[in-house]
Amino acid sequence: MDKSTFEDRKAIIAGPMHDSRRHDSAHKHVTGTADYIDDIPEPAGLLHGALGLSDRAHAEILNIDLSAVAAYPGVVWVFTGKDVPGVNDVSSNGSHDEPLLAETLVQFHGQPIFAVIAETRDAARRAALLAKIDYRDLPHWSDIDGALANGSPLVITPMTLRRGEPDTEMTNAAMRLKGQMRIGGQEHFYLEGHVAMAIPGEDDEVTVWSSTQHPSEIQHIVGHVLDIPSNAVTVNVRRMGGGFGGKETQGNQFAALAAIAAKKLGRAIKFRPDRDEDMSATGKRHDFLVDYELGFDAEGRIHAVDATYAARCGFSSDLSGPVTDRALFHADSSYFYPHVHLTSKPLKTHTVSNTAFRGFGGPQGMLGAERFIEEIAYAVGKDPLDVRKLNFYGQPGSGRTLTPYHQEVEDNIITRIVEELEETAEYRARRNAIIAFNRDSRYIRKGIALTPVKFGISFTMTAFNQAGALVHIYQDGSIHLNHGGTEMGQGLYTKVAQVLADSFQVDIDRVKITATTTAKVPNTSATAASSGSDLNGMAAFDAARQIKERLVAFAAEKWDVGATDVVFLPNRVRVGEIEIPFPDFIKQAYFARVQLSAAGFYKTPKIHWDRKAGRGTPFYYFAYGASCTEVSIDTLTGEYLIDRTDILHDVGRSLNPAIDMGQVEGAFVQGLGWLTTEELWWDEKGRLRTHAPSTYKIPLASDRPKIFNVRLAEWSENTEATIGRSKAVGEPPLMLAISVLEALSMAVASVANYKVCPRLDAPATPERVLMAVERMKAKA
Question: Which PANTHER family does the entry mention (predicted)?
């Protein structure tokens, strides 16, 4: 093989698909030239909408007087649920339990009751405050304790996972303990809040620009409230300024309101709530209360687990069913439970309906599992890492590979990940040094923890695991790409463009990435469940495959060579002994009437799930990772610093290492916020009081670890046939932040000489850390 042939082959193997490429909009993000919906030039005659919100947590609506609202200067129309042409419902799961506008009953403080359309946004917002509404207050509860005390109904049928004989085997365990853990919720706090703009068209048509992760659902909901078919609704999304799950279902109401007003008034309508309204009227991460009983032996090996996961779901079901299901799916974290019984309890509360958030219940389930390990470690007097390693899932044939939902863990690399990080982070030496430091330090105490991640990848609703893509090649050799995934800053567009460029062996600049639209790719799934690259990358690959097959057949016939003699090389095609520049090759194919367009499709294989039986294979594969964090706390104030974090994360064979590294780092910091500074609080009247940056604290740049070492497991390659043998990277790294909470817990435990599990709940705010320190002092 001569050198040129070798270089060609190297390019085919390496290609742009596994290169570190910049995000396609990175230069626009940093210069402020990336267009979001609020940046689109306003259509002539644009009107603005605002929400009229309830000021009661739970009440009957006796009378609504909107005369002052309608009379306010600039107001064009005021409408209520009675004015909805179709069905006054925006529920995402067909439960019909989430009215677009409340008519006779309000079920949380901040629930939309009416909408105002005015010439300016300021006029609409000011007018909305003038409504006079009479209520009859009803009993309300805004937290899990209140729901349990009042016998609250469940928003959806709970799920149970069971394997083995947990009842009898719990009794047979050498050691047993019971406990409880509170896990807080989290606000999405995307940089771009919710926004939607609707433009009326001919007949029943309407076009909606929405900041949503699920354009097809917006299409369905808009058709639902307008009583028109989906083919009359076009939804467009070029990019979002962050989503994190908060724009999977919660954009429904804003798009629906804009569309109703647009069709009624025949003018373009925009809804953009301010941050306070956005935080009050849209859902968050579910907070959980985990009650558990553990059976184990003197070495710390788990024998049986029995746990109940109660969740604050809010007033409607939204996505609480699949969220609480996924919490149970990850209640094992990386550990094998020989006998197990897990139950969800999705409780109704008089708060905004909670929804998807990065990890989708998995972080809460996994955090509970790490508490189990911590409890056992203190009970048997061992390093929690040793107890973790003792309980890891085994390799096939070990008898320790079956999950609580009866799926075999066949791709287990957690032991290798953890042991490699344990060595590179110098965990043992540092832990010994920290114990010595704590022995001599009066006020400052340190802690260190190394925790694993095993996260299942796929939608647990099997039907959602499908995707489509549309690819055109134009006569000049330029390529047009459209697929059902949405771009929220995570680099999905760039990765799928890399797949296409790799398939045709052309420069990525030749691929034009276009806005996601329901007019090109129908029936798309939400960009969620970490599946965006897996699904849409494979769909684009399938479209490229179809076009390439036609091109190869054309070349083989025209130049009278075998199909194997047609090879795509960097920006050219070799046909037998000749090489043709890619644009020239495409031009010749066009004149030969070769179809240069294809609709690709992909559905995830192997997966199936029976929720009622609690059995199946809901996940195509698992993504793994581990993090080691060292912290320092001030025992007088509860304040703390994150001194160092080391991460080793598994993304398979990365499609784009630079983007994946950014995802790992960002997810860790977002998880850090969830577990430390971000605290949601409702007052006794059911009002969310942490509804703005002044009262809700996301991490600052100064909160990141002072030393932050992040590596991808470059040796990893997905054993399943995913695109490029890569693995999902969106959600799994968020749970790396659990090492922070565990490290804080060790620092607190030092106050009582590591004899008692501190049972530090999340978020571990300085106040909560200080209270835990005081508890430890009392026990010491």
Answer: ALDEHYDE OXIDASE 1-RELATED, XANTHINE DEHYDROGENASE
Retrieve residue 417's tokens: 């990940």
> 471 with 540: CB under 8 angstroms?
yes
- How do 269-271 and 47-53 pair as beta strands? parallel
Among 169, 241, 194, 249, which Cα is nearest to 216's?
Answer: 249
| Alpha-carbon distance values, 686 to 141, 202, 470 (Å) | 7, 44, 47
Residue whose entry in the numeric block shows the structure tokens 């806005």: 515
Spatial distance between the Cα atoms of 629 and 643, rounded to a whole number of angstroms: 8
Q: How far is CA 39 from CA 240, 251, 257, 271, 740, in A?
A: 12, 18, 20, 13, 38
CB atoms within 10 A of CB 256: 30
User: Which residue type, as a one-letter code, is found at position 39?
Assistant: D
**List of residues 6+ apart from 250 with CB closer than 8 A:** 194, 282, 283, 355
Return the H-helix or E-strand segment holding 657.
helix 657-675
C-beta of residue 264 within 8 angstroms of C-beta of residue 115: no
pLDDT of residue 780: 84
Place of tokens 């697929």: 483
C-alpha span between 667 and 392 (Å, rounded): 24
Ranges in the chain, pLDDT < 50: 1-14
Residue 686's CB is within 10 A of a number of other CB atoms, namely 23
Residue showing tokens 């030239």: 33
Provide CB contacts within 8 A for 595, sequence distance 6+.
547, 550
The string of pLDDT tens digits covering residues 20-33 is: 999 999 999 999 99
The number of beta carbons lying within 10 Å of the beta carbon of residue 677 is 17
- Close Cβ partners of 708 (under 8 Å, ≥ 6 residues apart): 644, 645, 665
Which value, to the nearest 10 degrees, does the dihedral of the CA atoms of residues 701, 704, 709, 711 take? -80
Query: Tokens 């104030």 label which residue?
Result: 637
Q: Which residue, chain included where needed, has tokens 């006020």?
A: 443
State the pLDDT at residue 1: 38
Q: Which two tokens stand for residue 584?
A: 């020239």
Which token pair is 365?
A: 């389930």
Element (H, E) at 63: strand 59-65
State residue 15's pLDDT score.
54
- Cβ neighbours around 41 below 10 Å, total: 7
H/E stretch holding 160 reads strand 160-163
* CA pair distance 59, 106, nearest whole angstrom: 5
Q: How far apart (Å, rounded) are the C-alpha atoms in residues 735 and 320?
A: 20
* pLDDT for residue 93: 87
CA distance 190 to 181: 28
pLDDT of residue 6: 35
Residues in the chain, overall count: 780
Decide the pairing of beta strands 288-296 and 302-314. antiparallel
CB contact at 8 A, 540 and 481: yes
pLDDT at position 2: 43
- Which position has the token pair 């294979």? 617
Amino acid, res. 232: A
Distance CA 208, CA 376 (A): 53
Contact indicator for 75, 118 with CB cutoff of 8 Å: yes
Alpha carbon distance 739, 318 (integer Å): 30
354, 184 Cβ separation under 8 angstroms: no
For the chain, the distance separating the N- and C-terminal CA atoms, rounded to the nearest angstrom, is 74
The whole-angstrom separation of Cα 357 and Cα 469 is 26
Query: In this structure, what token pair is assigned to residue 705?
Result: 């670890």
CA dist 438 and 749 (Å) reads 10
What are the residues whose beta carbons fall under 8 Å from the beta carbon of 398, sequence distance 6 or more? none
Lookup result for tokens 């689109």: 40
The two three-digit tokens of residue 361, written as one number = 């219940």
Continuous segment of H or E residues that includes residue 471: strand 466-473
Cβ-contact 47, 258 below 8 angstroms: no
Q: What is the pLDDT of residues 652-687, one digit of tens each?
A: 999 999 999 999 999 999 999 999 999 999 999 999
Tell me, what DSSP letter sits at residue 509?
G
